[in-house]
Amino acid sequence: MIENSQNVWRSWAAVLRLLFIAIMGVLVVGCASSFPPAPTKAASSDYNYRIGPGDTVNIVVWRNPELSMSVPVRPDGMLASPLIEDLPAIGKNPTTLARDIEQALAKFIRDPVVTVIVTQFVGPYSEQIRVVGEAAKPQVLAYKQNMTLLDVMIAVGGITDFADGNAASIVRPADDKQQYGVRLKDLLKRGDVTANVEMKPGDVLIIPRSWF
Length: 212
Hints:
Layout: H1 2-31, E1 56-61, E2 69-72, E3 78-81, E4 84-88, H2 94-105, E5 114-120, E6 129-133, E7 139-141, H3 149-155, E8 168-172, E9 178-182, H4 184-189, E10 204-207
C-alpha cells in the first residue's frame, strides 16, 4: 500500500513538473514582442529641426544690438521681441523664422539682416520622443538627428527591475502608427548592439512590466 502511494505521488509530481515547464514556456514566449522588429535605420538625411513651444531662440539683428536678444517661444507657439509683439514661431526652422523677423522689422528699420540661433531645444510636440512604462525616468525628449534607442535609454536612466525589456515596443506615427518590437534587455543587460535601432520624430517607446 505504501509503495502504491509513493508511485502515485511520483506520478503526480511528474505531471506537476511537466505542467510547470509548460506554463513557464508560455510565459517566456509571452515575454517576446509580438510586433515586427523595428528597422535598424530610420533617420532621414533631409531632416531639419523645427522650433517648438519652450524653445529659446537667440535673435541677432546686424548693426542693431538693441534689437538683438534671447527670447522664449511661448506655449502658444508665438514669440515677442523689440518692435515685434506676436510672431508665429512653432513649426518653423531657424532660417524661415529669421526671414519672417526681417519682414516684420522692415516696417521700422531699413534692410534688416537677422540670424536666429536656437539655444534651448524642446521641439514641436509632434516630433518629441515619449518614453512610458517601466523606464527609470519616463519623460519626453527632444528628437535629435540620428538619435538611437540607446541614446533614449541613457537619457531616461535605463529600465526598472520590473521591466520586461524584450517585450518593449515603439509606436511610430511617421509610419501610420505602426508598432515595432525592440529588445531593450538584450541591448542594456547583455550589450547586444544589434538591438540598437534609430528613432524617428514622434516615436513613443512603451516598456511593459514583467509578469514574473
